[in-house]
TrEMBL record, chain A:
Keywords recorded for this protein, A-Z: Signal
Protein name (database record): Extracellular solute-binding protein
Domain of life according to the entry: Bacteria
UniProt keyword annotation of Signal present: yes
Source species of the chain: Streptomyces exfoliatus (Streptomyces hydrogenans)
Taxonomic lineage from the root: Bacteria, Bacillati, Actinomycetota, Actinomycetes, Kitasatosporales
Signal sequence region: 1-20
Keyword RNA-binding applies: no
Automatic annotation (TrEMBL), chain B:
Name under which the protein is recorded: Carbohydrate ABC transporter permease
Signal peptide stretch: none
Location of this chain's protein in the cell: Cell membrane
Topology in the lipid bilayer: Multi-pass membrane protein
Lineage: Bacteria, Bacillati, Actinomycetota, Actinomycetes, Kitasatosporales
Amino acid sequence: MRRILTAAAALVLLLTGCTAGDEGPDDGVVRLRFQSLAWQKESVDANRQLVDEWNATHPRVQIDYVQGSWDSVHDQLLTSFEGGEAPDLIHDASDDLADFAYGGHLADLRPLLPERLRADIPARSWETTTFGSDKGVYGVPFLQEPRVIIANRKILESSGVRVPTPEKPWSWTEFRQIAQDLTRSMGPGRYAVAWPLKEPVSVSLNLGLSAGGRLFHREADGRVTVRFTEADAVVPGTIHDLVVTDRTAPRTTLGSGGSDTLPGFFAGKYAMVPLGFAYRQQIAQQAPEGFEWTVLPAPAGDAGLTQGVSPQTLSIAEDSPYKKEAAEFLDFFLRPENMVRLARGDWMLPTGTKALADPSLHTAEDGWATGAAVAQRLRPAPAQSVRGYPEWKDKVATPAFQEYYSGAIDAGELRRRLVEDGNRVLARYQRK
Amino acid sequence: MSALRTSRPARIGQYLALLAYLVFLAFPFLWLISTAFKPAPELASLHPTWIPEDPTLGNFRQAFDEQPLLRAAANSLIAAVSAALIAVAVATPLAYVTARHRGRLASAATGWVVISQAFPFVLVIIPLFLILKNLHLVNSVLGLVLVYVVWSLPFALWMLMGYVRAVPAELEEAAAVDGAGRLRTLVSVTAPLLAPGIVATALFAFVTAWNEFFFALVLLKTPEKQTLPVVLTHFLGAEGVADLGPLAAAAFLATLPSLVVFAVLQRRITGGMMAGAVKS
């Protein structure tokens, strides 16, 4: 019995020892919690260094760096907001902000941000974080990545096909033809291109902008409806034809994530893989010795190299009592030279025009120059601010695109589902 | 006795089925170990091998360099051990009373236990968060332990009730006839027979708490208090991209405590359960 009592006492002591709350000492120092989603070493190092530099020069406003996770950030933030315990500074992506902005959980940054920062980031990027009828700005878009084609240089050059540049990209029609030429030259069991389409909606919509596709149209009464025009059909139609008609892209990668296609890419099974710009880091780390790769712009349509992006963002919680101090930190954190460090750490492109002009982001090495060249053509991802978009995406568009790309349904059925089923979903969110 | 004898083909079939089941269970873990020791280029090979061609400890080094794994493991251990001990301490007397003294209240209690298992995490997390916040127990290991105790208690109770029912009441009656008081009977007769059940229940509560992710993610705010499952997600990026080598290395280390605890206690559990089951 005595042993049990001793153990119980030890347990109580242990737990109470671990129970210090999160209220810091009352020393007049403002402490801000900054939840960052940076996860790769280079990126985490860049973030931490900037926080350390700030803390060293701002003894009255200290930043506590907390690492979050992309995998669970939405649920975690939602719960934290509801419980009034959200971090003061929040790293997220623009396509995840709508619910939080409409829910009143994020501070409108317009009165808080300095003119320097507002002017440095182009209006098209600010659009991605602007929500509501009063056009409030609920995050600073600071990093973005276009979708590019990463190609096996040896296969590409030995096949004799024209290598595209940002100035003279492939058209979608030419891309289809080149895929046929490449597949023929590579031999059986090999494919010109592998499409990792685990998330088919964002790929289809974002690249669809290049052909003038919009899919979501705001009507005169302010409501948003889905329309599937000929321009909207160009990119999905090309992907479908590559997989189903031409067999120049394997069906097996349609359900894969980008990383899953890399073993086949390194082994020469696929000549090209359309991926986000940041995947270059993984390729640089994992490519076998002697493997040569190059970064090509995605094919262009009637709208040129235009494509949609959902930039990474930094927001301030509405509940934070220190919004002014948090905004001052953002101003420091996103100075052009710091934005370059963050961009290089994450292998992405900065949204800031001054940062984007940095020579280190225009080198041919690792394809930086290709990305920087298409940066001017990046636009807000379609529909990211449309209420009901997540449900439309999960319940209607994802299965419809997956079935279309695998050949299970035709373009007519795809159109019917996206438009008829889709508008029914959106209507529920737009009842007045 | 002859009814229990099985034919040779049937026996072979049974062993094959058992082997297939073992392979099914072991495959992910063996693959995890293999991945933990592979260098980055091997992880991206089109023809992956079971045995790493160029084994490395680099993933382990990187995992420890990049994340505070030891601190997180200590936090997990404190939370899981505390939750297991408290859950067992609360559930054991409750299970005894509910199993031995059957009545309307006991039936209602067991019914409620079953119903409570139907509530998913997401349904309770926000109310729970608000309650803990009012008690100033957000971002505290004590708060997390309380949640784990509450979360594992119904099943622990259910499990222990089964063990209590398996202890013949006649043994307690015999002790009473021999002059033992209620407390003496409980301590000297019932408790030793229940020990394997208590250990099994504690194990269940320990493993549940050790592996739990969502409550820890939501309730713990500062890095110093984060538990191992939360820290493991720091190796994951957007769109399912992962730092596979260090993730596998850290995940492999994270599974070891559960395995060790099971390995050490498993023999005692089964031994205890079988003790005195048949007359020799």
